[in-house]
Amino acid sequence: MATVVLVTGGTGLVGRAIEHIINTEPENSRFGRKSNETWIFTGSSHADLRDPEQTRKLFEKFNPTHVIHLAALVGGLYKNMKYKLRFLRDNIHINDNVLHTSYLTNVTKVVSCLSTCVFPDKVTYPLDERKIHAGPPHESNFGYAYAKRLVDVQNHAYKAEFGCNFTSAIPTNIFGPNDNFDLDDSHVIPGLIHKCYLAKKNNTPFVVSGTGKPLRQFIYSYDLAKLFIWVLREYDDVEPVTLCVGENEEVTIREVADAIVKSMGFQGEYLFDATLSDGQFRKPASNEKLLKLIGGFEFTPFDQALDSTVKWFINYYDEART
Ligand code: NDP
């Protein structure tokens, strides 16, 4: 049977990574394109998914049998703090339109994207799939967090009432080519890559915010792309599954900055501004469920993935989101 996979948010960091993997892995391999599959990657220029009518037309045009739903209003801490209502409403509308249109058009399966940032603020670590609703999210991003959590609630409701095969995946911090490298509104890795690039270009110091001591669990977008393809094809449970490297593979911000300096070939002054906030010290997530189900997965070593991302940024500086 012909399979049409629609990837919403297909023009972003994760969407582009899935497109890369589908087009470069051997055909009919575990993560490569199957001969009966058509993949469609859409961004907001194809349809504003906040709007039900545009969403309906998008589905009518492509007639998907499967959906990977990545589209979301996303942003760094400052943007999340400033636009709580916008994060809540835009994401509720996007998610509701995608899920309900999928239901109305008999889509066989939908995999939506949650995030470990939507977990409770006060929680025991490591995070795992069962703790997502176990308390209020952090005050700074409650709009985004509650909208994302509702996807899991909706998935259960669509299953209970109509038997739909809708599920979700929970990644930790993601990085890779095509990320948002904006200096004011990016995540830590793309932000530091851009800062270091400018420090080298302008012969100025490379200043990293905070002490460099906090630990983070990053996943390379190309690895995450393979895991999303696995979820779409092989994971059929409504309960979310966390997609991340192991808890013992956390890296410090200092290690991240060191790797960027090395990869960029930066030889100027390099320092940490400990007067700036470090954020949470660590927030590890468990990939026990993932590894048990997938039966082994080789993650790209962090330094290698970071080096590829830095090289991509240098090569595509003019096209990158800066
Ligand atoms: P990006 O910002 O790189 O991409 C966002 C995508 O969503 C783009 O394709 C964008 O389209 C699309 N989009 C945004 N608003 C709309 C809209 N109103 N209608 C249609 N499309 C829209 O995000 P990421 O790739 O980083 O994120 C993908 C998913 O992963 C999101 O659900 C996010 O919450 C989740 N996530 C991300 C993490 C990270 O570290 N980046 C961590 C954990 C989860 P266009 O380009 O045309 O604007």
From TrEMBL:
CDD domains: GDP_FS_SDR_e. Residues 5-239 form the NAD-dependent epimerase/dehydratase domain. Keywords: Isomerase, NADP, Oxidoreductase. Its EC number is 1.1.1.271. It is an enzyme of class 1 (oxidoreductase). The keyword Oxidoreductase applies. One of its GO terms (molecular function) is GDP-L-fucose synthase activity. Belongs to the NAD(P)-dependent epimerase/dehydratase family. Fucose synthase subfamily. This is GDP-L-fucose synthase. It comes from Piloderma croceum (strain F 1598).
